[in-house]
UniProtKB/TrEMBL annotation:
Native organism: Corynebacterium tapiri
Domain Ribosomal protein L9, residue spans: 13-40
Family matches, as HAMAP family: Ribosomal_bL9 (MF_00503)
Protein name: Large ribosomal subunit protein bL9
Family of the protein in this entry: Belongs to the bacterial ribosomal protein bL9 family.
Keywords of the record: Ribonucleoprotein, Ribosomal protein, RNA-binding, rRNA-binding
Source taxon at top rank: Bacteria
Length: 150
């Protein structure tokens, strides 16, 4: 059966790869777990759009990673708006997606939310924070941001 992978599958491929697998493997493992979709023209077009969007966020090499780090360092006011009580305690917590949206709103580069190192449950109140962004294997950036009540 011909499938398009939607997630990384060990010993098979990465998202966007078109693979040929046995029918049972596809029906019983890949499709129920949403690791792949049946290869159709519409699915191939959708995967092409997803790949284009990933290419925009992708760090190409070390020099590009240094450029992105300089852009992050140049940002002055990164603000993350969240719902909070009057005492400053958040209703929930700040996610990596919230930080990516804050960086983009401040005029910074487009980041992939999976590159942000945010310890679980770290941010549960308003204030100023700093997180690391793994831009490349050898390049780490830092993002300073403020969490404010919306």
């Amino acid at each position: 059966m011909k499938l398009i992978l939607t997630a990384t599958v060990e010993n098979l491929g990465v998202p966007g790869d078109i693979v040929e697998v046995k029918d049972g493997y596809a029906r019983n493992y890949l499709l129920p777990r949403s690791l792949a979709v049946v290869a159709t023209r519409a699915a191939e077009k959708q995967i092409a759009e997803i790949k284009r969007a990933q290419d925009v966020r992708e760090i190409r090499n070390v020099e590009h990673a240094h450029e992105v780090r300089q852009q992050l360092d140049a940002l002055e006011k990164v603000i993350v708006n969240v719902r909070a009580s009057e005492s400053g305690k958040l209703f929930g917590s700040v996610t990596t997606g919230d930080i990516v949206d804050g960086v983009r709103a401040a005029g910074g580069p487009v980041l992939d939310k999976r590159t942000i190192n945010l310890p679980k449950g770290m941010i549960k109140s308003t204030g100023n924070y700093q997180v690391e962004v793994k831009l490349h294997q050898d390049v780490l950036g830092k993002v300073n941001f403020s969490v404010v009540a919306a």
